Amino acid sequence: MDQKELHALEAQCTQEHAPPCTAACPIHVDVRGMLAAVAADHFDAALTLLTKRLPFPGIIGRVCEQPCRAACNRKDLGEALRIAALERACAAYGAPPLPKRRLPGRGQRIAVVGGGLSGVTVAHDLARKGHRVTLFEATERLGGTLWETPEDVLPRDLLTGELTQALSDGVEVRLHTPVTADLLEALHADFDAVYLGVGQGPQADFARELLAGVAPDTFATPREGIFAAGRAIAARPTFIESISTGQRAAISIDRYLQRVSLTASREHEGAYITQLYTHLEGIAPAPAIRPAAPAAGYTRAEAVQEAQRCLQCECLECVKACAYLQHYGSYPKQYVRQIYNNLSIVMGTRQFNTLINSCSLCGLCGEICPYDLNMATVCHEARQTMVAQDRMPPSAHEFALRDMAFSNGEAARLAHLAPGSERCDYIFFPGCQLSASAPEHVERAYADLREMLPNVGLLLGCCGAPADWAGRSDLFEEAQAAFRADYATLGGGQVILACSTCYQMFKTHLPDVPVLSLWELFSEHGLPPSAAAPRDLPGPLAVHDPCTTRHESAIHESVRQLLHEMGLRIEDLPFNRERTECCSYGGLMWLANREVAETVVQRRIAEQPLDYVTYCAMCRDFFADRQKPTLHLLDILYEDDLTARAARPGPRFSQRHDNRARLKRRLLTELWEEPVSEPPAPPIQLLLSEEVAARVEKRLILEEDIREVIACAERTGNRFHNPQTGHFLAYHRPANVTYWVEYTPVDDGYQIHNAYSHRMEIVMQPKAEEDA
Amino acid sequence: MNTTMTPPPPDEVEWVCARCGEPLTLGEIEVAYLGSAFPVKLWHCKRCRLALIPEELAQGRMLEVEKMLEDK
Q1: Which of A108, A319, A529, B72 has its CA 20 to 30 A from that of A383?
Q2: Is A754's CB within 8 Å of B55's CB?
Q3: According to CATH, what is the number of the domain A20-97+272-282+301-307?
Q4: Does B63 contact chain A (CB < 8 Å)?
Q5: Which residues in chain A are contacts of B45 at CB distance < 8 A?
Q6: Which CATH superfamily does the domain covering A109-258 fall into?
Q7: Which residues contact A549 (CB under 8 A, 6 or more apart)?
Q8: Cα separation of A117 and A64, whole Å?
Q9: Tens of pLDDT along A652-679?
């Protein structure tokens, strides 16, 4: 990811964009923040927020034309918030913040012509910046057109009070001083800059030519050093617009005096339409609060009530839908920046490694995002970068990569023509996790396929998804090369896939290989010949679509059609099909961040009280392991006792290995009647209590690891002994992990009391060295 | 990382070296990960060169340090 890509990604997330009210407000009052403070009865904080942008809250609270209200997302849900009335309440009930200190004087002098709203705004803003300002007003009072507002709406003491207060520090006001063309010449010669806030009407005639040439973004007139804004140049002659253009002219004058660019970085000045997306479905309408005494405005309590109707507009659509995005307490705009920074660190802690590795890569966020920002792509690429930088934490994915190596190793991998066939028209590729979870269903489906179709070969192995998820392009390519080699040996053909992850990997990375999902095939050719006879079926089930089928609507349909055909009543989960959620296995989330993974899976299984049906072995096992009765589609096709089957926990990791290895041996001996050499030595028999087995599983220690430790200890004698308990304790480091096993030899094997592991290596100095 | 891995090892150890039958002694042993090495006080058998990493250390402080080093 380079900076340009980062900025493009950041721009896709609109969470930090202004809410519609603020964008529509020409001076960008933080309405949302202000209303949140009022809703919490914090009027001081609300007034502080308001006066950040607005020097005259009392006046504007009474006269503002409120373009914000037309943009308010509440407008069709009761009524737009009464924002000006709430501003007035802030001015009435909030303590004014301490006046900000003026910046130190810079000795430059500015003449402001006109004491209307824009002129007073310019004078106020420039005085705060340390300039010496003289304001020339033709009449006897400040305020200009504000005086046309009826007095009951805008009390005169308030009008003069706020304007005088705004100019109290650093502005010299000269009333009764009409400016003519001659005087303007004198001011231009005498002052460093001149502002014209002369309003509309005959009094502006002397400057007509200058006003006609005002630049719309900088408010510079054609004459250097003279600026103009306010009603004189306004397309919309409103009070709030006069303040806005006055503020922007003041920025230009300050820049002009500092001799810096007038035009740089001035996007989003004035009113605009925000891109912030806010989901409004399901929000109950609520009518506006009406003040009991309209002339007096809102009481404090009424204002609080009214402010509580504010929707506090924000997007967070993806965050609401994803427990992972929620877990880190922020949103994608921040996350992509954190990821970018993480990848750029040369020295120091890469504190976002786990954030990068915890995404399930399911892509739901991209589906939901109104601007298609997909964190899966970002995290996936970041993992590849980390691997390339040699910065991927070794513990993050190693267990899954070992599992993949096992599936594609001698013990489990198999590629074979159908018995008696000379060639392949089809190849059944059931996938490593179906072979691990339900090897008997792989055998049965393969038998059915051979009856339904000619020349169906079999390929047992892993598609390489774990390597892809881990960012290990090298291992992923290796897995694909292994497939291509076997595919070539078998002579090609259409590949029938039972796993949706395999399906996604094949479609994305092996586009030249024709594939078909087992479910599409069954739905087109009819139920398989060995499908279970009609029997008592469970009540309605909720379908869970695996996240890797997100964009495979044909598979969604086939699965539902099959379930109907088998007589099942089904319901959809609220998030399903293209908006389905991951079970937490995807992207190796379950391995990289157990805490988030557990939240994700628990949330998914709680979405519907019905039992679930799915067509991914991992989803099924993950759900069933957490006491959510879940059936695999093949369970419904092949099993009689569906209640027992739905409750069946997934096999443990060691058992998954065994299941794959046994499947290969059984098929070779029974189906192809090929001689299979016996395993080299009868494996060491291990006895583990349920409790120990569960603990060891959680620690990702396989029975084969335990056997290696014991074999090594028994062979070398390197072990500790506890004379009280009679237990032995030994360790062994076959590769990157040191495994410890506490055990007791028993008649027919070894009783395992405990096992644990660490990655740190014990460095024992050679004996001679230590003694010396 | 602190040069001592907390918590300190227990004053007594219930294990003896099964190889030579001798009681274990407490001393500094080096542990290393990803290019960093630290001395740790561990019970070990000097003669047979076997060091004992207790479960609490492996699953506790050692795991924390491993994670820290992995993010360095």
Answers
A1: A319
A2: yes
A3: 1.10.1060.10
A4: yes
A5: 720
A6: FAD/NAD(P)-binding domain (3.50.50.60)
A7: A500, A503, A504, A555, A556, A580
A8: 12
A9: 999 999 999 999 999 999 999 998 877 6
